[in-house]
Amino acid sequence: MLITFQTTAAAVAQIFAMGALGFYLIKSRLIHESGLRILSFLSVNVFFPLFIFNQILKNFDLSRMPFWWQFPLINISLVVTGLGIALLASWRHRGHQKDGFVAASALHNAGYIPLLMLMSLPLGPAAGELYACIILSIIGFDTCLWSLGVWLMTRSQSPHMDFRKMINPPLVSMAAAIIITLVFGRGCIPEAVLKPVKILGDAAMGVAMIVIGGNLALSSLKQVNWPRVTGAVLIKLMLLPSLALLVVPLLKLNPWVALVAMIQSCMPSSITLSIIGRNYETKNQDLVNQIIFMTHFLSIITIPVFLGLYGKLTHF
Questions:
Q1: Nearest partner of 302 among 9, 38, 7, 3, judged by Cα
Q2: Is 76 within 8 Å of 136 (Cβ atoms)?
Q3: Distance (Å, whole) CA 118 – CA 126
């Protein structure tokens, strides 16, 4: 497999074409916000957990992936790095706007877009194993999102973290699949059981992109806070991937670990922050939605550039 600007640009174009459908459906009012909420619920609570469960059971092979524990650490490291940079960039500021800026700068779209990227790249037989690698890395991200992310978004309303929010269907699905694989091994669940799980799980990515596009269509772009939006864009789309481009090749990591780290470092801000903001009716949700919109829009250019450079540097 060779990662080039052309292959990653084609992958990103396919992803955003699906997102554009969700954007159009909302803007044209063919789907209303209530319908989008239902799709979001199904995506988070049904389709995505089933996709995760099936991919881990089929592709997580401990004998071939003794380094599997490194994948959750990738996203934890990226979140901590982004958090540190964002706090330094906003150390003079206070209030809910700062918290929204820090959350959107530290937390990235760790699941949907990386998985869709892999689906669109010419991976061949390696695709299934890489799906499992990305899914394992999401464990670290979800741990940060449902603790640090919720706390930052709601800190002006509640000063304490609620760790109960970390118990969610995707995380439970990951844990169940990993435990089953470690205890009983691959192939322990009959194909007759896994087949309907696979069929439903295969809907996850398409539905997710419709939801993401629809959420972006609902974002308010009036009175954009350009200083904070620009700062978050520079952190998410320029500084973090540049650091990864310099550091990852020097660490001599397993090739799959290094590739996942590079892909995750290029991702725009987490779309789930928009859902958290709407759910808790936070004062910073407009700023967060503005950052989400701009980082996703501009990542059409930055993702192919940085992954193309990584492919040239590593001959991957």
A1: 9
A2: no
A3: 10
Give residue limits of the domains in the chain: 5-314
What pLDDT does 159 receive?
63
Q: Using CA atoms, how far apart are residues 110 and 138, in angstroms rounded to an integer?
A: 6
CA distances from 105 to 33, 87, 156, 201, 223 (A): 26, 9, 18, 30, 20
User: What is the C-alpha to C-alpha distance for residues 102 and 228, in angstroms, rounded to an integer?
Assistant: 10
32 to each of 48, 72, 278, how far by Cα in Å? 22, 36, 15
Using alpha carbons only, what angle is made at residue 75 by residues 37 and 276, rounded to the nearest 5 degrees?
25
pLDDT at 2 over 70: no
Task: Name residues whose C-beta falls within 8 Å of residue 28's C-beta, 6 or more positions apart in sequence.
Answer: none
Q: Which helix (H) or strand (E) holds 13?
A: helix 5-27
Q: Tell me: the pLDDT tens digits for 51-104?
A: 888 888 887 777 777 888 899 999 999 999 999 999 999 887 776 678 999 999
Instruction: Supply the pTM of this predicted model.
Output: 0.81
Annotation: CATH topology of 5-314: Na+/H+ antiporter like fold (1.20.1530)
The amino acid present at 138, given as its one-letter code, is: I
Predicted confidence (pLDDT) per residue in 267-311, tens digit: 999 887 877 786 677 777 888 888 988 898 898 889 989 988 998
Region of poorest pLDDT, from 131-145, 240-254, 255-269: 131-145
The whole-number pLDDT of residue 172 equals 86
Residue 253: helix, strand or coil by DSSP? coil
3-state secondary structure of 108: strand
Answer yes or no: are the C-beta atoms of 99 and 155 closer than 8 Å: yes
Q: 165 is written with which tokens?
A: 């929010």
What is the distance between the terminal CA atoms of the chain, rounded to a whole angstrom? 7
Q: Tokens representing 213?
A: 């596009």
Structure token digits, residue 209: 């992109």
